[in-house]
Amino acid sequence: MEYCVQKVFNNNVVLVDNGEEEIIFYGKGIGFGKKPGCVIVKDSKIEKVFTVDNKQFNQVISQTNSKLVGLCEDVIYMISKSIPEELDPKIHVSLIDHISFLVSRIEKGEEISNPFLMETEILFREEYRVAGEAIEILRKGLELPIPDDEIGFIALHIQSARNGGSKATAMKFAFVINSVTKYLEKEIGAAMPQKSLEYMRFVTHLRFAMERIVEGGDIATLMKDEIKQHYAASYKMGKGVAKIMKNIFATENVSDDEICAITVHIERIKMIIDEMEKKEKSKIYRAQ
To answer: Is a pLDDT exceeding 90 seen at residue 268?
Structure first.
């Protein structure tokens, strides 16, 4: 089948038309020497075929220079090779639009900060790793000082694209973790041991709890009465965590079983904090 070239973004990325729709071909050297109107026959040189939302994609590329679009498509190709799921076609619009705006902000000297960077890294570890590679491609291609904070934003785009979900929902997850962490630090009177395995397990549990809230699922927790009795203070905090999630997700779908499961994690985190404080006091005592 023959395809007519509509636009050449770089030597590896071209936009083609098959008579019914426009699609993106990615392949090493596939765009070299090509011009709009040239005919390409699909063969082994084409490493990846991307479908796009033609209307939105054409709108975004009309406002973005071809070099930047090509670089973004290089990034999307890398992501597609790193993630097992098929990417949502919307990423071709959302990521290009995001990077274009990012470049504009950097060139204006605006500060780029991400208040949920650590939460995003813990929640979406694989996406965060791939986003780090994406940032290196962008730094090299754009020759701009892109801050590490941007890794978190790219990770959310990847998370959304790999699940066909909403970037807004992923951001909501990060916001919940940030809010819960601050709440518990205030209640416990100590910083969360964010590098500890127990804290990471807690965040992982909260991620699945939030997915259950969104999807309407539930969890069964054994020995609820014993948990409430023996960990009364932590159970109270667990209800506080549930209240945060209820408010952010505008739902009452946080069961007592869920709260008890959260309570156990809070109790374990308190134990970690106590152990850390004892070790610190021991160091001070030995130093004297």
So the answer is: yes
The predicted structure's pLDDT at residue 234: 97
Query: Which of the four pLDDT bands, split at 50, 70 and 90, describes residue 52?
Result: confident
CA atoms within a 13 Å half-sphere pointing along the CA-CB vector of 86: 6
Residue 76 pLDDT: 96
The pLDDT assigned to 43 comes to 74
pTM: 0.83
